[in-house]
Specification:
With about 150 residues, the protein is an alpha+beta fold. It has a single domain, classed as Rossmann fold (3-Layer(aba) Sandwich). It has a two-stranded antiparallel ribbon. Strands 2-3 form a two-stranded antiparallel sheet. The longest helix has 10 residues.
Length: about 150
């Protein structure tokens, strides 16, 4: 088990898998979290809190804080929880030549994550923020499932 897609590679190396085998055979790594979906019958619109948004996306994010977000309210459809069902949040790291070159015995999560993000990987935090922007979940719910910022 790892916190994110990048952590899977370093975990495999820690378990004794040779880096050259990972470079030769790994196609990609997916990390997933499930967030509770806001009830479409009762979700409310609230002013966004910039400090919460920054806690979710991080200081380096290109995602600007929205003017409003959605929050749970509660009704008979959702048993007064404000949530009904779940929706997936995914981080997919596809292996590319630059990422393959970064996989070596002394690789650390920070440098590998930087290489993956530079190569176009969407982080769990960004994927969760996108779910918030779509109105699928709340900022609080997204924060409860994403791993801590590195």
């Amino acid at each position: 088990h790892t916190n994110d897609a990048v952590g899977a590679i370093t975990r495999l190396i820690d378990l004794g898998v040779a880096p050259y085998l990972l470079r030769a055979t790994l196609v990609g790594v997916v990390a997933q979290r499930l967030v509770r979906r806001l009830c479409t019958h009762c979700k409310t619109t609230t002013p966004a809190r910039p400090e919460q948004w920054l806690a979710l996306v991080g200081p380096e994010s290109h995602l600007a804080c929205p003017a409003t977000t959605h929050a749970p309210a509660g009704c008979e459809h959702c048993r007064h929880t404000g949530y009904l069902g779940r929706v997936g949040v995914y981080e997919m790291m596809r292996m590319s030549a630059p990422l393959q070159a970064a996989i070596r015995a002394d690789v650390d999560d920070v440098s590998l994550r930087a290489a993956a993000l530079a190569d176009g990987m969407t982080s769990l935090r960004s994927a969760a923020a996108t779910r918030v922007l779509r109105g699928d979940t709340s900022v609080e719910e997204a924060l409860s499932v994403v791993p801590p910022q590195p």
